[in-house]
Give the backbone structure.
Amino acid sequence: MKNGLIRGLLVLTSLFLFTGCSEETAKIQESSHPDNYSQAADKEQSESQTVPDSDSDGSEKAQGENKRVPGVSAKVLKVVDGDTIDVLYKGEENTVRMLLIDTPETHHPRKGVQPYGPEASDYSHHLMDGKTVRLELAAQGGRDKYGRLLAYVYADGKSVEESLLARGLARVAYVIPPNTKYVDRYRAIEAQAKNKRLGIWSVDGYAREDGYHPDVMKGTSAYEEAQPKNGASESGGSSVQDSKAKVPGQFAPDNQGSCGGAIKGNISERGKIYHMPSDAYYKATKAEACFKTREAAREAGFRAAK
């Protein structure tokens, strides 16, 4: 009887150990399944994205999104046109030219305003005005022949280049190694806009590899919108610069947009604004008109910077 009892205990012990090992094996197999790895990673990523970040312009969400894309932070001082911005980077003003895209011109000295140039510029204003963006700088911090920084630009965590391409407001251009990182992706987005005949692709032959050809756009609303209006120069410049009707105490800036310490007048989508030498962004502002007094600036239709 004693031997039978011992054999019974051994059988029970073996069953207990086998059951425990089976359950542990199942857990290991379950955790090692590729789908479960994916689910765990998704959960971890989702939880990590709920951590708020602070932003210099007060937008926690925007800054949090920006931190998830490559590059360095820079404050947008001015949107020049669709593919060019002025930023405050490392304490200095820099002009940034976006990599791998080209938008129609808005104030080129020879080409003037091209169809869909104003739309591209307006959309870039919408995406970046007053924001802190991320710049993924060109290889070796490259610059173009005009000294402009070359970079991929992200606003609110999204590619500005991709947004412009998707709306038919830019074409893929200036594909020059080694800065070709996203060219395949950009071409795919461009192809979708072409198929939908959006923006610059709405009329065959307007956007080509060698640039834009406005003549084929004649008769369209985009072409009419690009024509000089009353008080504007044929090159698309501001009426202040060409004037036109300068008020007493107003004079033109030098080629670098400097007023030699006088009041700077700047024109943007926000209107005509003048900057005093004591203002925070005076040095970073490129003037389009200069004034000796505040009265002269106000008479010319400018208001004080806030």
User: Anything to note?
Assistant: The longest strand covers residues 72-81. Residues 100 and 175 are 6 Å apart (CA to CA). The first helix runs from residue 2 to 31. The radius of gyration is 29 Å.
